[in-house]
Recover the amino acids of this structure.
């Protein structure tokens, strides 16, 4: 994707930064049309892609506002991933969640060198506003549901390690790539 010369990678906050532990402020929908906001979204996508992430929440780039961007594309190692088109979620809220939980691996651009197994609700329904201020209601499962739960956690001052049941699954990225990523088929 060509972004032109204007777009620059935003510096990312890392685990330990208090902004990742704060509850983010709601975004006034009147701000969505501003140049500032459009530029912010564009830079967040660019920053996420440069870091090979699938989601990035505003507190991760030092903005304590309720906004995240996300996009899932199938990869060579995971060709069967259900794609998620470019998504901009503003003031998102989980309004329904399945009792059934599912455990799977997660990482975070605020601590990119580790991975851990995190239980999440298998299915969720989320309400959010898109970049045009339109209200969206989506039912999600699998990785998409996991991703939304991870990002919404960021907006509430939580990170995925808070949700881990067993810290023994924590791995460095290189061990994860060697032991898990190469062997998974999903
Ligand atoms: Zn994260």
């Amino acid at each position: 994707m060509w972004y032109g010369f204007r777009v620059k990678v935003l510096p990312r906050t890392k685990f330990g930064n208090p902004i990742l532990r704060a509850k983010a402020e709601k975004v006034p929908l009147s701000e969505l049309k501003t140049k500032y906001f459009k530029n912010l979204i564009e830079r967040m996508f660019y920053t996420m892609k440069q870091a090979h992430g699938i989601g990035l929440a505003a507190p991760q780039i030092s903005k304590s506002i309720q906004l995240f961007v996300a996009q899932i594309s199938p990869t060579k190692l995971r060709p069967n991933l259900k794609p998620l088109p470019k998504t901009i979620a503003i003031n998102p809220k989980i309004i329904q969640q399945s009792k059934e939980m599912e455990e799977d691996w997660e990482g975070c651009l605020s601590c990119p060198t580790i991975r851990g197994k995190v239980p999440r609700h298998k299915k969720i329904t989320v309400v959010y506003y898109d970049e045009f201020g339109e209200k969206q209601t989506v039912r999600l499962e699998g990785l998409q549901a996991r991703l939304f739960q991870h990002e919404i956690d960021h907006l509430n001052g939580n990170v995925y390690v808070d949700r881990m049941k067993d810290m023994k699954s924590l791995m460095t990225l290189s061990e994860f790539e060697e032991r898990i990523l190469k062997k998974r088929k999903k």
